[in-house]
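Researcher: Here's the sequence for the chain we discussed earlier.
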Amino acid sequence: AKYLHLSGVSVRPGQRVAAGQVIGKTGNTGRTTAPHLHYQLNRGASVVDPVVFHGTTRRAPNPGEMHAFQSDVARLDALLGNALARR
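Model: Thanks. This is the structure I predict for it:
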């Protein structure tokens, strides 16, 4: 597993951790537009879909609410002066 874009790391590679233990702090490193956690699973040289690997489900906004969501995102991007504002 890889945890990318962190502003700080609290553990060492190979260290055992417990559920709920702080392993790092979210950050904004690299080419990102906001602090976040990039969680990535690799198996050898291949990237594995963590949703499939963990057997979780994807959630998405209700299709009827998607236009309102996209409008809110565009409005907030404009307020923040986001150079990568969505079109």
